[in-house]
Amino acid sequence: MRDVLWPDSARRRDLVDRFVATSRAAGYREVVPPLLEDLGVFERVGEATDVVTKEMYEFTDRDGTRVALRPEMTAGVVRAFVQHKPLTPWKVFYAGTNFRHERPQKGRYRSFDQVGVEVLGADDPDLDVEVIALAWYFFEAIGLRQVTLLLNTLGEHDDRVRYSEAVASHFDAHRAELSEASLATLERNPLRLLDSKRREERSVIETAPKIAEFLSPSAAEHFARVKAGLDALGVPYRIDERLVRGLDYYRRTTFEFTADALDAAQNAIGGGGRYDGLAEDLGGKPTDGIGFALGVDRILLAAEAEGVLGEPESNLDVFVVDLTDGSQARDITHELRAAGLSADRRFGGGSMKAQMRSADRSGALYAVIVGEDEVAAAAVTLRRLRDHSDTAGDSAQQSVPRSELVARLAARSSETSQVRPDE
Ligand code: HAM
Prior knowledge:
Blueprint: H1 8-25, E1 29-30, E2 36-38, H2 39-43, H3 50-53, E3 58-60, E4 66-69, H4 74-84, E5 90-99, E6 111-120, H5 125-141, E7 147-153, H6 157-172, H7 180-188, H8 202-206, H9 217-232, E8 238-239, E9 251-259, E10 268-274, H10 278-281, E11 289-295, H11 296-306, E12 318-322, H12 327-338, E13 343-345, H13 352-362, E14 366-370, H14 372-377, E15 379-384, E16 397-401, H15 405-412
Parallel strand pairs: 1-5, 7-8, 12-13, 12-14
Antiparallel strand pairs: 2-4, 3-4, 5-6, 6-11, 7-9, 9-10, 10-11, 14-15, 15-16
Helix pairs in contact: 5-9
This protein binds histidyl-adenosine monophosphate.
């Protein structure tokens, strides 16, 4: 399991906040499903998938109920939809941690964060376009330039079944060319063979049947409208007929975003698609659904690789240096915070030198220095610690009447955020 410490935590927070703003602006509202629920909910992700069979953290709780930590959010969101029966279309977004027992490596963790959206109760292909474009323009807004959108359709339920059978018999006829592991995959989930990365299997994959030949007219029409919509919105995509995705619930549109700046093994920074059968599988009425999840950890790696997302800065306006008994620092930090400024101090006193070192380290824009002389004069010393647009025009050091300090600083301070894009 992973700890996220500052400054990574600041970048992560900023990214999630931006995603929240983007989703809200498109009419999505937040849903917060539980981290842990009945195992049966997550088994709907696909009994033949690695996520369920090999990677799930599952155990028996004190009541003897089989439960699991969520490996993804979609199953829990759809379970919540079935349970609460909200008005449709139900447009929701989420941000949260998921757990998969994978082999940890850069970009692949056992606890990882996703942000995403789901929409239940609308069949319109223009919704697929809205959902895909939301993710695409989110990547663009945070400055990622090297992202590829891979797009495919798996057809409707019956198309997918017929296609899967055809793919299975194709690979069955080429058993000799398949590895042990692929033979096992052939038994469990033949479609997954299509995205096998094994070099030796490339030619047998290339000659496999194509989904396009199995699409019903309505599935083909849906997909055509999705492509036309993406074209209209200027979202570039690449059709990838071998994109089957790692979860079983997908029908019709599927997509994945890859970051070209990352290593191929961990370059999927998000994915999603339609899952029109999932609500029914979870005990609800047949309901159309679509959504995506983006991997926060991987987006941050991609942003780092591309050199976007600014360096996190301190969010501190003021550090109070108190050379008396500490009561000045106690009162001034309180007053500054009440006025909407951010302020910190050192506890346990210390020499001027030691306190100024803490002030420098804190990253604050100003130090407010109070000693016995200042107290006697009902004033404080305001020292500019850093050059910044917020401190422009301020002299390096000045004496300010104690009674005017808070108002003076409040007027100076513009909005501060933890991460400021490079100016
Ligand atoms: P997924 O493809 O399993 O789909 O995961 C989505 C994204 O989560 C991946 O593209 C990746 O960026 C990130 N991710 C997955 N596993 C890890 C890991 N071990 N470490 C770091 N990042 C990881 C889903 O989860 C579906 N629920 C997406 C969806 C939503 N489909 C429809 N609605």
